[in-house]
Design goal:
Chain lengths: 252, 564
């Protein structure tokens, strides 16, 4: 029997006043899938992510996570999600360890399980040296690693990541890419929004390309190449599809 | 056995406690000087307030004037004013925390319940809004207890009364804030203005009605009664400020049984309103967040305005680069409703008080009342200036924060940045408060020489308070914080606020005190106006020079040595 999708967007439209940010978007992402969501600036990627997290509500259509409607049953849906935004938030006056404990408590982990998981993520992201310092002293890379540790600590069903590699050094990027792939293999669904097309090409099971709020391409890299009638890199495919969509819009 | 995680309520309390504890450890652990300075400044301001209040209550005691009615009037007015300000202040601080803050955006993406996020932000907002009352109002209440020999449980119950009371206006402010964001997401400035206007109109109508009623039967004997009648709104059985004053006075008299009813009324109504506010937040917070984020076009159009040009014109005496920086600061200020909203509210309330102070009297105002009221208005205006400079000018340097490199690379001297902000502060505060003082004095019939003394005092206050705010902000900046309200509550902000309050009391006492005493002496004697009436002005000018030059020099030195 096929497992129900973790993400299910059905005819989702989002307007900012008169401006259409997301236009009739329908999309499903299966458990354990690493899905890359690509698009030019202002295409509607972050708006879509914010709707998945329940920060914004769809103007029309429905967004479901793990079967829960994010508007009606948002608290249940968010229990399954970890969201790492491009500019993550940390409490300056908490230490990294206290922040991890806060997240573990927020996701209602038992004390023993939280302690074990905390040690695992501290090891995994190499936080030992600074985890007991106040986060206000952290560099950008240290903050990113702490935020990822917090995102993984409660073993989410769905990890939503917006521009994960910005500000990370090459070694950390490698670590992160391996980790995302490994988590997906373990069954975590990963929704990755990025401008780093090489990362998407390397990691993604499927890719969605959005332009001006509309989904203009969806499938594996091979399927997208076929759609673009091009046998190049993801970058070539992306540029061709987005330019075609822009030209089509101009002539419409 | 598996130990379950704590409930969200406990979790957030624990979070707040950790944040406060870590901030405290960091603040005081690294430097004992900070702790001593902070305690010392607080003690000085509290002592000054205590001494003034003690003197007043002692006078009542020595003159054998029964304290009941007069003290009840003072307490009523104090709690009523506090309540009115807390409604606006809590609403504005909550708006910034719930809808503009990075923490709220983060928490809304987690399983944190909307009402729980609201509760934690509500506590911060009420604490932030009412801390000044604790510093200023606390000594008044304590001095009353000492003068009239209140029992020990009066002091024990004081914080319980105050804590219950702040819930009431705080919850009303919260409900108004959530309502405005939900139902007027993109007309909230206009809606807020409409709410303020409506409340002010109601207050004016109330004042008019009570004054008319008081005047109808007014004769010399009834003047005091007329004064009491004016406060009928604050004194009704349904008025929370009346519950506060009656309850505290009952406790002070040792009548604990009678105090229980007002205390119960305060807490039960406060908690009920808080629960209503939390329920409204549960239903409307996420909806409001969404509506505010997406109710209008994603890109709002901003541009220059007449106000910017006026701001630049007012500092015409500065060079162009400094003027540009001032306009930048002004633009940031006017585009933040939580910032300018408070100035507008405080100014309107003060104007209202000034305009109505004349209404006490049908025809001629006795000289003693004239001078007493004008001094009271002067003090209130000085307090407005202190709040304005402390809340809005002080955070300017810290708010440059991570953008400081832009200023650091500009082809202008860093001292110039500082003096530019100083000029901006002096000009703005002098215009704002000078107008109020002239209006107040003219309405009260103060002679031109008195208006002159008050205007000089306003300028001295503006110069000294601006020097303190700008200088201390450069000396003790907090570049990590982006929330101006938290910058104000930090170590530097607290030192600035306390030193400024001390300066305010000193300058008014030195500059205006002798003048009004001399006027009173001239009114009862036959020797004319004594020479020492103006003796305080040079001393106050010297104090203003010290309050400007010392912190500005220290601040400029710190700014020159700053790395970015």
């Amino acid at each position: 029997m096929t497992e129900p999708p973790v993400i299910e967007l059905t005819n989702v439209t989002k307007r900012y006043g008169t401006k259409l940010a997301v236009d009739d978007l329908s999309l499903t992402v299966a458990p354990g899938e690493l899905f890359a969501f690509l698009g030019p600036n202002g295409a509607g990627k972050t708006t879509t992510i914010k709707m998945l997290c329940g920060l914004l509500f769809p103007t029309s259509g429905t967004a479901r996570v793990g079967g829960f409607d994010v508007v009606k049953d948002g608290d249940w849906a968010r229990q399954l999600i970890s969201y790492v935004p491009d500019q993550p938030y940390l409490y300056d006056k908490l230490t990294g360890r206290e922040f991890l404990q806060f997240i573990a408590d927020l996701y209602r982990m038992s004390r023993a399980h939280a302690a074990a998981r905390m040690q695992e993520v501290i090891d995994l992201f190499g936080l030992h040296e600074f985890v007991d310092d106040l986060t206000e002293r952290y560099s950008h890379g240290m903050r990113q690693r702490t935020v990822f540790a917090a995102a993984f600590i409660h073993e989410p069903k769905l990890l939503i990541v917006d521009e994960p590699t910005v500000g990370l050094d090459p070694k950390s990027i490698r670590l992160l890419k391996d980790l995302l792939r490994a988590e997906a293999n373990k069954g975590t669904t990963i929704f990755l929004s990025t401008h780093s097309l090489d990362v998407a090409q390397e990691l993604a099971d499927r890719i969605g390309i959005v332009e001006r709020g509309k989904l203009i391409g969806l499938g594996t890299l091979a399927a997208l190449r076929k759609q673009a009638s091009l046998d190049g890199s993801l970058e070539d495919v992306f540029l061709k599809l987005t330019e075609e969509a822009a030209a089509e819009r101009a002539t419409a | 056995m598996t130990v379950a995680s704590p409930s969200q309520g406990i979790l957030f309390q624990r979070l707040r406690w950790r944040l406060v504890r870590n901030a405290g450890t960091q603040l005081f652990g690294s430097s004992r000087v900070r702790l001593v300075t902070m305690v010392l400044c607080s003690v000085v301001v509290c002592a000054a307030m205590f001494a003034a209040a003690y003197g007043g209550f002692d006078l009542l005691e020595r003159q054998s004037i029964p304290p009941g009615a007069i003290t009840e009037l003072i307490f009523n007015a104090m709690f009523f004013t506090l309540g009115a300000m807390l409604i606006f202040s809590t609403g504005l601080v909550l708006y910034a925390g719930l809808f503009n803050g990075a923490e709220a955006r983060f928490l809304l993406t987690t399983p944190a319940r909307a009402d729980q996020v609201f509760a934690t932000k509500f506590q911060s907002a009420v604490t932030f809004s009412s801390w000044a009352f604790v510093v200023l109002g606390g000594p008044i209440l304590v001095s009353y207890g000492i003068v009239f020999a209140a029992p020990w449980y009066y002091y024990a119950l004081l914080p319980i009364f105050v804590l219950g009371y702040v819930l009431l206006p705080g919850a009303i402010g919260a409900i108004v804030c959530l309502g405005l964001v939900n139902f007027f997401p993109h007309r909230r400035k206009q809606a807020l203005a409409a709410v303020i206007l409506a409340i002010l109109t109601l207050i004016m109508y109330w004042v008019y009605r009570t004054m008319t009623a008081a005047k109808e039967g007014l004769n010399d004997r009834d003047k005091l009664q007329g004064l009491f009648d004016m406060f009928t709104l604050t004194r009704g059985d349904l008025s929370p400020s009346d519950w506060m004053s009656r309850g505290l006075l009952d406790v002070a008299r040792g009548d604990l049984a009678s105090a229980l009813l007002p205390l119960t009324l305060i807490w039960s109504n406060g908690l009920l309103l808080y629960v209503v506010a939390a329920y409204v937040a549960k239903r409307l917070y996420r909806r409001g967040f969404n509506r505010m984020a997406t109710g209008g076009d994603i890109r709002q159009r901003y541009g220059g305005s007449v106000a910017d040009r006026i701001a630049e014109w007012l500092v015409f005496y500065l060079d162009r680069p400094t003027r540009i920086l001032i306009v930048k600061d002004f633009r940031t200020f006017r585009r933040e409703p939580a910032q300018f909203g408070q100035v507008v509210i405080f100014t309107l309330l003060l104007l209202l008080a000034v305009l109505n102070s004349r209404q006490f009297f049908q025809a001629e105002i006795p000289t003693a009342y004239q001078h007493g009221l004008s001094l009271l208005n002067m003090s209130a205006t000085g307090l407005l200036m202190t709040a304005y400079l402390g809340r809005f000018i002080y955070p300017l340097i810290s708010l440059e924060g991570r953008k400081f490199w832009i200023l650091g690379l500009l082809p202008i001297r860093r001292d110039q940045l500082l003096w530019g902000k100083f000029a901006f502060a002096v000009t703005g505060s002098t215009i704002l408060t000078g107008g109020i003082i002239v209006l107040s004095d003219v309405l009260l019939g103060i002679p031109p020489v008195g208006v002159g003394v008050h205007l000089i005092t306003v300028v001295l206050l503006a110069v000294g308070l601006s020097g303190l705010s700008v200088g201390i902000s450069a000396w003790l900046p907090n570049f990590r914080e982006t929330d101006p309200s938290k910058i104000v509550l930090g170590f530097g902000g607290t030192v600035n606020m306390l030193v400024s309050l001390g300066y305010l009391v000193l300058v008014i006492a030195i500059a205006c005190g002798p003048f009004h005493a001399a006027m009173a002496a001239a009114a009862v004697g036959r020797d004319g106006f004594p020479w020492w009436g103006f003796a305080g002005l040079p001393a106050a000018a010297a104090l203003a020079a010290a309050a400007t030059l010392i912190p500005m020099r220290v601040g400029a030195r710190a700014l020159r040595g700053m790395e970015f």
